[in-house]
């Protein structure tokens, strides 16, 4: 880790390839998942660019059934061209590779999504995080046990593998809750007057939360809370610090609560 970024360092001089020789040898991190539908999204703050024609670098998402059966969804670079890649490795043998060149001029980050719907897998990518382009969908029946991210490098015996670092800003698994908070108010606040603001808790993921969701907010110095309320929430004012709390046991969380002072 470096600050809030994950850095996957593939050192120079040896190959760290996700498929060469039937072995997944990339630098990677994996997490266990249940075998259901999901949408994965990663933002890489690194763009693979390489002028060599005898070496290769890349970064991507791995979705695996086990150590010898997995998908490779990747941004790669060779001979001055950056590409989007997908392929599957079955019983240690890679096949059906698709590679599409993309323009990365002026680009400092890359986004990738992988969506599973039953046995259909769809990869999409973006250079701005807003407009995504789809790759060809793949049909494959697998019992998925893990997903993750990787960085890779490869070089011929004469050139050697170049060093490469895949820098990850975030990785979202849409099969999990993804809670976000926003706060807003209208009008101006004046001394001796009253006003209100709204705090909205939202679930941007595709799975429901479980248990109690709690939201807490501290007022700026000089403001005094007088009430807090929200539909579906149990709200109150905590102590003299001006902290308001709201909680809700229903899922998914698309509730809002607000207070007045």
What does this structure look like?
The chain has strands at residues 6-10, 27-32, 38-44, 55-66, 69-78, 81-90, 93-102, 110-117, 120-126, 133-134, 138-139, 146-155, 164-173, 179-185, 196-203, 213-218, 227-229, 234-238, 243-248, 256-260. 29% of the residues are buried. The protein contains no helices and 20 strands. With 261 residues, the protein is mainly β. 0% of the residues lie in helices and 53% in strands. It has two domains: 6-173, Sandwich (Jelly Rolls), CATH 2.60.120.200; 179-260, no CATH class. It is elongated. The strands form four sheets. Strands 1, 3, 8, 9, 10, 11 and 13 form a seven-stranded antiparallel β-sheet that branches. It has a six-stranded antiparallel β-sheet with strand order 2-12-4-5-6-7, with no helix packed on it. β8 and β9 (120-126) form a beta hairpin. Residues 240-261 have low confidence and may be disordered.
Number of helices: 0
Question: H/E element string?
Answer: EEEEEEEEEEEEEEEEEEEE
CATH topology of the largest domain: Jelly Rolls
CATH class of the largest domain: Mainly Beta
* Overall number of strands: 20
**Helix share, percent:** under 10%
Alpha-beta classification = mainly beta
Q: Layout of SSEs?
A:
Elements: E1 6-10, E2 27-32, E3 38-44, E4 55-66, E5 69-78, E6 81-90, E7 93-102, E8 110-117, E9 120-126, E10 133-134, E11 138-139, E12 146-155, E13 164-173, E14 179-185, E15 196-203, E16 213-218, E17 227-229, E18 234-238, E19 243-248, E20 256-260
Antiparallel strand pairs: 1-13, 2-12, 3-8, 3-13, 4-5, 4-12, 5-6, 6-7, 8-9, 9-10, 9-11, 14-15, 15-20, 16-19, 17-20, 18-19
């Amino acid at each position: 880790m470096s600050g809030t970024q994950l850095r996957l360092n593939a050192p120079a001089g040896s190959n760290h390839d996700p498929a060469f020789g039937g072995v997944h040898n990339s630098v990677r991190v994996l997490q266990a998942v249940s075998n259901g539908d999901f949408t994965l999204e990663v933002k890489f703050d690194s763009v693979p660019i390489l002028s060599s024609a005898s070496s290769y670098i890349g970064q991507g998402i791995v979705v695996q059934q086990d150590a010898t059966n997995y998908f490779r969804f990747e941004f790669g670079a060779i001979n001055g061209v950056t590409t989007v890649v997908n392929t599957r490795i079955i019983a240690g043998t890679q096949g059906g590779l698709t590679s599409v060149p993309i323009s990365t001029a002026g680009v400092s980050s890359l986004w990738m999504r992988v969506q599973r719907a039953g046995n259909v897998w769809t990869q999409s990518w973006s250079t701005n995080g807003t407009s995504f382009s789809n790759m060809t969908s793949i049909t494959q029946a697998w019992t998925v046990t893990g997903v993750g991210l990787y960085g890779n490098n490869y070089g011929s015996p004469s050139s050697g593998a170049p060093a490469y670092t895949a820098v990850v800003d975030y990785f979202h698994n849409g099969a999990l809750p993804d809670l976000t908070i926003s706060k807003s108010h209208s009008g101006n606040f004046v001394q001796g007057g009253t006003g209100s603001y709204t705090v909205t808790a939202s679930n941007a993921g595709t799975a429901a939360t479980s248990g109690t969701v709690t939201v807490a907010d501290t007022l700026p110095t000089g403001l005094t809370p007088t009430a807090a309320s929200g539909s579906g929430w149990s709200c109150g004012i905590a102590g003299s610090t001006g902290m308001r709390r709201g909680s809700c046991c229903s899922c998914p969380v698309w509730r809002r609560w607000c207070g007045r002072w």
